Amino acid sequence: MKAFLIDRYGRNSGRMGDLPAPEVGDHDVLVRVHAASVNPLDSKISQGEFKLILPYSFPLVLGHDLAGVVVRVGSRVQQFKPGDEVYARAPDGHIGTFAEQIAVNENALAMKPMNVSMEEAAALPLAALTAWQVLVETARLKKGQKVFIQAGSGGVGNLAIQLAKHLGAFVATSTSTGNVPWVKALGADVVIDYKQQDFSSALQDYDVVLNSLGADELEKSLKILKPGGQLISISGPPTPQFAQAQGFSWPLRLITGLLSSGIRRKARRKGVSYAFVFMRASGPQLREIATLVESGNLKPVVDRSFPFDATAEALDYVEQGRSKGKVVIKVHSGMADE
């Protein structure tokens, strides 16, 4: 099968190649990939930024998100059958959606929302699961609470705004000048143009901050939280709780604790909590998300689509950080397996 892969870590190291068809385990579902979306995580993995915590072997097929059609199921799979249209975020350790086929554990899969295309469905999993695991699972965001979502025009940000509004929250976000009207249309109550305004001086008494940017923004976020508020970061630094959940070795746990010791200490002084969320695959949560999509409460946003043989260009485009919503790769056309 055709796949986009890397043979080593490094910038611009990806190439198109041919690999054997995936092996299908007892609990696996073989999916013919129709569309896959690109995430900043794909470039970070290809450059080796996660090699300590995600030790992949080469050749490594990149890609985390997919939408496609079930070709075959393992002997113990009960939830899916050939011909089902599905979507998923492939589990860590078993990524590889930039390929014509992939075998995915059934627990990571869900039926594709019926009212969106394959490309739109592929734009959802990683970003929507991240928003869900931050706002629903970790923050337990409630109606009437105030949440600040950084980078509202990004892949995670646009879905987080929609989800927070569905949950009944008051939403503030940040974006560049040209995207202000667009994120307002998504439902944001307050939009900070970061080129004109500093969010830390414009906002106050927030219950939750979803941080997706750098160290400066992380520390500034403490200033806008009320006592008892929650600072939740998807861009780091990781916490000892995360290291323990991942089963890291003792030295790596120590390093992880040191990385976040500063922000955790400052959060305690402020009377708020700090948490790090590293999104995990979840079929059950994708089923919840599909329900929101089918009811019109969550709408995938596709900035641009690339053909499969232009995957390297798609990765470069995402690295520029200017996309509104998600960038999608069209792997197969047509709605049925051939």
Automatic annotation (TrEMBL):
One Pfam family, short name: ADH_zinc_N_2
Top-level taxon of the source organism: Bacteria
Coiled coil region boundaries: none
Gene3D superfamilies for this protein: Medium-chain alcohol dehydrogenases, catalytic domain, NAD(P)-binding Rossmann-like Domain
Signal peptide boundaries: none
Enoyl reductase (ER) domain boundaries: 10-329
Example GO molecular function: oxidoreductase activity
InterPro entries linked: ADH-like_N, ER, GroES-like_sf, NAD(P)-bd_dom_sf, YIM1/Zinc_Alcohol_DH_Fams
PANTHER family found in the cross-reference section: ALCOHOL DEHYDROGENASE RELATED, RETICULON-4-INTERACTING PROTEIN 1, MITOCHONDRIAL
Protein name: NADP-dependent oxidoreductase
